[in-house]
Write a structure and sequence with these properties.
24% of the residues lie in helices and 35% in strands.
Amino acid sequence: MAFEPSKGLLACGYCEHSQAMPDVDAERHDQVLQEHDFHAFANADQTQIAALTSTAQEVDCPGCRATLTFEPPDVADCCPFCGTSIVAQAHATDPSIVPTGVIPFKVGRKQANEALRDWLSVRWNLRDFEALFLPGKLKDLAQQQGLSGVYLPFWTFDAHTVNDYRGEQGTHHYEYERDSDGDLERVQKTSWKPASGQMTIPFNDVLVAASEVMDAEKLRRLWPRIWAGDLEPYSPAYLAGFKAQRYQVPLQQGFEIAQKRMDASIRGLIKRDIGGDDQKIHKISTVYSQETFRYILLPVWLMSYRYQGETYQVMVNAQTGKVFGERPWSPWKTLVVLAIALAAFAAVVKFLVG
């Protein structure tokens, strides 16, 4: 049995048998998905962790060092992150914080492959100009590698903040001054006055990738945010037919990353509160409280392929179908397009001059 994204059911790949996912009533659904107290977990002992499932197996990639979890009879033959062949012996999963929730796969393999084919197609598209420079055989090469369905680990953090600030508000005005040649020129000046205040700013579901083998900025573009209503309580059944990566960014480190993002948002909101044409912030005193978190798994179709000795990685958001990744450029196509652009530019210049 494997989870079938198009049906939202567990289905057998050899016969027509299928069955519904374990049912969770509405009251327990919300209870299971509640955030955990950050400080309670950060200071907890081993009693609050457990194996991801009772039957799952784990294996470490010798290339990128990612730890992959999968449910038998699935096997880990090739790493979806770097394409390295995995020959290490799988073992029972080590204990970790069990996921609170999961966004199940919505986009199936067929739909993901269609999105990938479109993304790798050479076509004229003003929103994807880079596609013009792709090597002609890239689509066939990438198709041969195949996609792997993987659940990636993420933290989400909530916090309540009270922020006292002190700074200055600047107002622009203009004066005329003589320059070195004795000519009058209009010069912008800024008048400053003290500003201070207090802002209460709540944060909800600040998303932090807990994978180190994936570029954090790329994951932010693939998953800019989540909606809590899309989460389902974690069940091992969702892993059937897919792999999952163990989190590499610990809970404490994840909160520190989230806190930096919160601090940046706080700074921007304080500048807006100060107002005026320009702002200076001399001091911000922030008190954090009600810090909570969730550990969640988000679905991604991954593919790693090699082209002319370089490894490239492609990701398909398995909830929305959005594709993001790396593509090599064809040198000769680049030269042809540049030659055409230069010829067109020369023709325009000649027309204007003539």
